[in-house]
């Protein structure tokens, strides 16, 4: 088995987990649960995994989520 198909499988798995996680968390945020960042954290995570793969993309998404608190202004924060 070559490395590329396995990495694609991991990438698809990570994107599936992101989608499922978003569907579980979104109702808990309520009608005013709006992300303070552009792109939203879920869009950022998806873009990061698509661009860098599951390992680095997940790390970037976790770093982004660590900024999600009331003391951060948010704003435009694209995937590097």
Task: Write a concise synopsis of the structure shown.
The protein is mainly α. The protein has helices at 3-29, 41-52, 54-65; strands at 37-38, 75-76.
Structure description:
With 80 residues, the chain is mostly helical. The chain has one domain. 64% of the residues lie in helices and 5% in strands. It has helices at 3-29, 41-52, 54-65; strands spanning 37-38, 75-76. The protein has a two-stranded parallel sheet. The longest helix has 27 residues, at 3-29.
Strand content range: 5-15%
Q: Domain count, please report it.
A: 1
Q: Helix tally?
A: 3
Order of helices and strands: HEHHE
* Alpha carbon gap, first and last residue: 31 Å
Structural class: mainly alpha
Fraction of residues in helices?
A: 55-70%
- If you average the pLDDT, what whole number results? 80
Gyration radius, rounded: 14 Å
Largest sheet: 2 strands, parallel
The low-confidence parts are: none
Query: What spatial order of strands do you see in the largest sheet?
Result: 1-2
Q: Give the overall shape.
A: globular
Total beta strands = 2
């Amino acid at each position: 088995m070559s490395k590329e198909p396995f990495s694609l499988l991991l990438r698809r798995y990570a994107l599936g987990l992101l989608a499922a996680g978003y569907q579980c968390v979104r109702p808990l945020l309520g009608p005013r649960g709006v992300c303070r960042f552009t792109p939203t954290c879920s869009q950022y995570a998806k873009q990061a995994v698509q661009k860098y793969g599951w390992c680095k993309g997940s790390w970037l998404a976790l770093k982004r989520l660590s900024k999600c608190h009331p003391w951060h202004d948010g704003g435009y924060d694209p995937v590097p």
